[in-house]
């Protein structure tokens, strides 16, 4: 079972453990147009590996290989992030099935659920919690 971790707790974990990694599994279009978490104050960058490939949204067949190519090993604490927490959960499950033992899902993702007007990033998630992020 994959544990959901609130974004603020993920930020604390990233601050406390220099081995911990934040892996954003959204598409390149989302990274470019919505923004990405900013880990510069921690002296590192978010790992960008799409779970699905835009525009077809087919699953990235090389996802686990890309984790390894990014330097992650089975014991690396990896926090998976997507828009709202669904794709990141699937990515965490795939990583766990491939032998990664310390995988977590960022609850409510980068933007969280829509508010009453249908806008994301206001109710919960990385942006709504005021955690660092920037446009690419």
Automatic annotation (TrEMBL):
Residues 111-136 are annotated as: Disordered. SUPFAM superfamilies: Rhodanese/Cell cycle control phosphatase (SSF52821). It comes from Acidisoma cellulosilyticum. This is Rhodanese-like domain-containing protein. It holds the Pfam family Rhodanese. Residues 16-135 form the Rhodanese domain.
């Amino acid at each position: 079972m994959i544990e959901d971790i609130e974004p603020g707790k993920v930020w604390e974990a990233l601050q406390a453990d220099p081995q911990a990694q934040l892996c954003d599994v959204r598409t390149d279009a989302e990274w470019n147009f919505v923004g990405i978490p900013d880990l510069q104050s921690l002296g590192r960058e978010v790992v960008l590996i799409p779970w699905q490939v835009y525009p077809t949204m087919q699953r990235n067949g090389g996802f686990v290989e890309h984790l390894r190519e990014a330097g992650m090993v089975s014991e690396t604490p990896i926090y998976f992030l997507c828009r709202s927490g669904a794709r990141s959960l699937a990515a965490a499950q795939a990583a766990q099935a491939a032998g990664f033992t310390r995988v977590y899902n960022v609850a409510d993702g980068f933007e969280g659920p829509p508010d009453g007007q249908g806008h994301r990033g206001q109710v919960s998630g990385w942006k709504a919690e005021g955690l660092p992020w920037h446009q690419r």
